[in-house]
Amino acid sequence: MKRKTIPNWRRHVTIFLSGLLMGTADVIPGVSGGTVAFILGIYEELIDAIRAAVPFLRRMVSLRWREALNEFPWRFLLALVAGIGTAVLSMARFLHWALEAYPVYVYALFFGLIVASVYVVRTRVQKWGPLTMLVTALFAAGTYGLVGLRPAQTPEALWFIFLSGMLAICAMILPGISGAFILVLLGKYHYLLGALIRFDLVTIVVFIAGAAVGIVSFAYILRWLLNHYHDLTVAALVGFMLGALRELWPWKRARLVDFFPTALTGEVALALGLMVLGFAVVMILERTAERHKKRGDLPALATAGSPESGDGEPVSAG
Predict the structure, then answer these.
(1) How would residue 315 be classed by pLDDT, with cut points 50, 70 and 90?
(2) Hey, where are the domains in the chain?
(3) Nearest alpha-carbon partner for 238 in 147, 152, 131, 115
(4) What residues are paired with 257 via a beta bridge?
(5) Cα–Cα distances in angstroms (integers) from residue 246 to residues 140, 150, 275, in the given order
(6) What share of the chain in percent tops pLDDT 70?
(7) What is the mean pLDDT of residues 139-143?
(8) Which of 16, 83, 92, 185 could form a disulfide with 196 if both were Cys (CB 3.0 to 4.6 A apart)?
(9) pTM exceeding 0.70
(10) pLDDT (tens digit, 9 = 90+) per residue, 264-288?
(11) What's the pLDDT at 243?
(12) What is the pLDDT of residue 316?
């Protein structure tokens, strides 16, 4: 039976719309753009396009430009990146305003998103045992302590923006964790949203440069760790996320000083409702992706270097 051909313009519009949904997910801590890509059925094509980047650059350096452009899926990436960029710029303005006007509600939503992400990522550990649980506990305690030691203001110098880009993109190739979450922990989430709104080109370019360096350097380290110590690496990630929940706790008397509400006021009730909503959003996305996987529509939700990922290439889930 002959497959029906989709007109190029219609396919590009579809990819652009997919990018819009992925970009919306990427800018929200705890929501995985990779999971959205699974659900939309473009994850495998996206990974193939990323892998094609190195041969593309080699051909460009060798001045084989025509061959490079013919072999590289630049139309797919252009439509996808345009959609992601449009969503990020649109969401940046709203989230920047919301964080200033309603910080308790925003962080309550983020808290629920990350709690669900912890639940999802823990299922990636193939066999829990005393050692994996100990690693999780140690990383949770260590991260909890480090978050408490973090200064109220982190540097706005370009070197720190570059480092933030490196670390954020590293999170995006980890299963179930988003780069936006790392930016929250580094104290640069709100600042970078502002840079996008102001269209601060220097900050944006330095951040992107850090991301480019990060994905090239860290991807190979991550692949090695997950190939050789898969369960321990994922267990450490679970602990890291658990400890980092301290930063997202919505109720603070002063910077980094947490407290528990003593009365169920309207604000507290709404914040708790947003926590539940955040948890539900991630779980629905995960369950939807799992259903697609079981039907064979999508590749397995594999972590990089796990048996399901085949050749051990880094797999983006952020």
Answers:
(1) very low
(2) 92-309
(3) 115
(4) 254
(5) 10, 11, 14
(6) 78
(7) 89
(8) 92
(9) no
(10) 888 889 999 999 998 998 888 778 7
(11) 86
(12) 40
Type of residue numbered 118: V
Which tokens hold the place of 146? Answer: 């480090």
DSSP letter at 31 equals -
User: CA–CA distance from 297 to each of 5, 40, 41, 44 (Å)?
Assistant: 18, 10, 7, 11
Q: Which residue type is seen at 115?
A: V
Residue 67, C-beta contacts closer than 8 angstroms, at least 6 positions apart: 59
DSSP 252: E
Confidence of residue 304 (pLDDT cuts 50, 70, 90): very low
Encoded tokens for 194: 């502002």
Give me the helices (H) in the chain, please.
8-26, 33-40, 43-51, 53-61, 65-71, 74-101, 103-122, 130-149, 158-172, 179-185, 189-198, 201-228, 230-248, 266-295
DSSP character for 152?
S
**Secondary structure (3-state) at 258:** strand
pLDDT digits (tens, 9 = 90+) for 31-63: 666 667 766 777 767 767 777 777 888 888 888
Q: Is 125 exposed, middle or buried (0-12, 13-18, 19+ CB in 10 A)?
A: buried
Radius of gyration of the CA atoms of the chain, in A: 20
